[in-house]
Automatic annotation (TrEMBL):
Domain Galactokinase N-terminal: 493-534
One protein family per Pfam: GalKase_gal_bdg
Keywords from the named record: ATP-binding, Nucleotide-binding
GO molecular function: ATP binding
InterPro entries: Galk_glycosyltransferase, GalKase_N, GHMP_kinase_C_sf, GHMP_kinase_L-arabinokinase, GHMP_kinase_N_dom, Ribosomal_Su5_D2-typ_SF, Ribsml_uS5_D2-typ_fold_subgr
Entry's Gene Ontology BP terms: carbohydrate metabolic process
Domain of life of the native organism: Eukaryota
SUPFAM superfamilies registered for this protein in UniProt: GHMP Kinase, C-terminal domain, Ribosomal protein S5 domain 2-like, UDP-Glycosyltransferase/glycogen phosphorylase
Domain GHMP kinase N-terminal: 611-699
Nucleotide-binding keyword on record: yes
Source organism of this protein record: Anisodus acutangulus
Protein name: L-arabinokinase
Gene3D superfamilies: 3.30.230.10, GHMP kinase, C-terminal domain, Glycogen Phosphorylase B
Amino acid sequence: MVAASGEESKKRPLVFAYYVTGHGFGHATRVVEVARNLILAGHDVHVVTGAPDFVFTSEIQSPRLFLRKVLLDCGAVQADALTVDRLASLEKYSETAVVPRASILATEVEWLKSVKADFVVSDVVPVACRAAADAGIPSVCITNFSWDFIYAEYVMAAGNHHRSIVWQIAEDYSHCEFLIRLPGYCPMPAFRDIIDVPLVVRRLHKSRKEVRKELGIGEDVKVVILNFGGQPAGWKLKEEYLPTGWLCLVCGASEDQQLPPNFVKLAKDAYTPDLMAASDCMLGKIGYGTVSEALAYKLPFVFVRRDYFNEEPFLRNMLEYYQGGVEMIRRDLLTGHWRPYLERAMTLNPCYEGGINGGEVAARILQDTAYGKNYTLDKLSGPRRLRDAIVLGYQLQRVPGRDLCIPDWYANAESELGLRTGSPTAVTAENNSLTDSYPQDFEILHGDFLGLSDTLSFLKSLAGLDALVDSPTKTGKHTIRERKAAAGLFNWEEDIFVARAPGRLDVMGGIADYSGSLVLQMPIREACHVAVQKIHPSKQRLWKHALARQQDKGQGPTPVLQIVSYGAELSNRGPTFDMDLSDFLEGDEPISYEKARQYFARDPSQRWAAYVAGTVLVLMKELGIRFENSISLLVSSAVPEGKGVSSSASVEVASMSAIAASHGLNISPRELALLCQKVENHVVGAPCGVMDQMTSACGEANKLLAMVCQPAEVLGLVDIPGHIRVWGIDSGIRHSVGGADYGSVRIGAFMGREIIKSIASTLLSQFLSNNGSHPDDSEEGGSELLEAEASLDYLCNLSPHRHEAMYAKMLPDSLMGESFVEKYTDHRDPVTTIDKTRNYGVRAAARHPIYENFRVKAFKALLTSATSDDQLTALGELLYQCHYSYSDCGLGSDGTNRLVQLVQEMQHSKASKSGEGTLYGAKITGGGSGGTVCVIGRNSLKSSEQIIEIQRRYKAATGYLPILFEGSSPGAGKFGYLKIRRRNPPKQN
């Protein structure tokens, strides 16, 4: 407790106004402990909360505690116990805290004055800090995360509509004096001054023995407490979910929920800390309250990931660091496959030895600050802190960071200028010290690693997996969990097959691919490696939960697919996935693609597996392959996600290449690319064109793959002239072809095609009824043109001049989905669905591919023209035109626009004009809405210097240092595959 002595004892009691966020009980429970200590020191505490009274009154019985039931923010809206609805969260926050903001501020200022508040504490209500400032009262925040951090990632998923929410929250926080930061914290750039305190946890009232005696539970009974945040989980609990002799205490069960005899329903106001201390382990979701109290009471925690709540990775890392956590796959939670996880939890020995008196320490700091003590350094100005907070919008992007404690969607690319921030495996044959080496640990039975240092590094990482047994802490750039899972993946006495597939840089063509355009794509240096082992089920090394699942089914060894994906923690997704291959069958036939999408959608933390496991289903459905053996698969990709450089295509192509090789399937690179497109379109459900997979499969180093996407006719490889160079610069804004913007533009283009066909049919009928003449179509052969346009299969087969002459003015700017369906029935795109309630842009979406196809053809021709400044100027101009056409479609972004503007400023600067120009053009790439910008320039040292200068300027403006994509590497077809076997296989248990 906070002691008052000396001069402090003579000071008057203080009035604290303590605001509690509306998200979950965890905030209220930690507020209880701080408020309790403040009250013990003789102060009044007014708690402003939406939480139930019992949370506070069960722990504090004092006339100095005042409860005011007001909800000033909504936290994160949960679709269910494990899923946050990102868009609903933003909309609810807007409804709760943004729309009525003026009246909230006026009310709170008046209330703070009416209670004569001396100090405002916020956990972690943004508007409370601003209200305190308006009332002239100092404020402090106590938290492990802030809402600008949580919502910023939601904004990236929801689009720009709610971006101002993040900035407003950050500005509100910037008014507080400092942050009292709790362990397991997230990055919180809105706060410049920070004081760290120990864990804030509620104290125990009763001993383990007392609680068990009250519940009638003997010491010989194993007890798990089911705790999913105090809300009814709504799951059907069955007796067989628990191992024999176990008992489960259920928090938050609904009154009418019927439980089996080995499950005990707890009262809604049950004091959870005592029950946790009386249990042997806990099963629940991660939150501050559950993690802090599990660590404090050394209770093993079996956790299931939540979707889209971004504080979780930090708490999870803290839990696992202190050896207190076991992750359960959501599928196993819902199907009752609990036994292997509970048994694993009983082997843990949580080792947290830090302080648990954070409530007392925080109360002391609050009291001292209110009395005038200065705990903080000289503060920077509010505007400076606000600028740092706004930078968060750029920082919260999925960039491979070097610190595994920070998820990839937050980490800054803080490497030195000019150095790549991705995986070190992205370096190619320029590193002679590596390429002169040979993978001594493996005998290469087939193939050649082509001197690629990233492949050599991958093979060395494979060889080092067994070393984890001897030194579990030496895991290189991967997490302990990833390496442990990978170490148990392969049988080293059997052959392993390795494939490699690069990402791609969209030089020209982009989203016009689905409209049949010519595209020019370059495979980049960064690539994905996949190692596959086909093995008889009796020889496969199954993970314990997969083995237990088979045993529970009472069946012998059956084919199982096991996947480990490196880098999972950087994207807050599960690092492993496993399934019985029979899950892909209904009887003797493969399941439908629709059922496969539903299968992978059940657990968003494992949805990534659709890109990998989906290749197995596509091979089953399209080629009639049946997999009688088990498959173990390791994915290691240096192609960063969300940058618009086809990370998903590289994973798909590498996975299918390795699986095909291991099963003796001879699939041409072109056919393999088309099959991989089916994975993305039909299993993942992303409506991409085929150019990504084609480049990854068919591309060659330092050449542009020229392809007409009708559907995938490779024209050949185009040399990049020696005096020309292309770069990719990442904007830091996450790109996704699964995003609504890309999909809506694609739908708009297909709508435009159907409208054009309808107009052409009408004109053709008029033409024929007028005996072959029509005033609006004077071209010779007009009937043939109209006939072709009435049956137009690809928009890109319509020439720009015909589009302008006949159709441009007749296309609507936009059209409601319902209106289009009423008139035209269907847009005839097999991979997208029209939302009748949505308004789609039509004119710009249809115009873009028609002109883009012409631009790409011109670009290709210019590459072979005479070397001159005019050649480079013309190439650059085509890139600029493409970029602005993307923006007209609604696929631009602040980050990519800024990068293009920086290239233009560099190109038109006095230095460039006075000497030899170096940079000539830039454009957004791929699906747009963020991602990477392609830059074209002269191949010279000065160009490289200017690219680095653009990096510097972009970081100065945004706080984000862009990744550079330089160089190229061979596609999967050129690489082929490696068949390897361990020379001296280690002994395996």
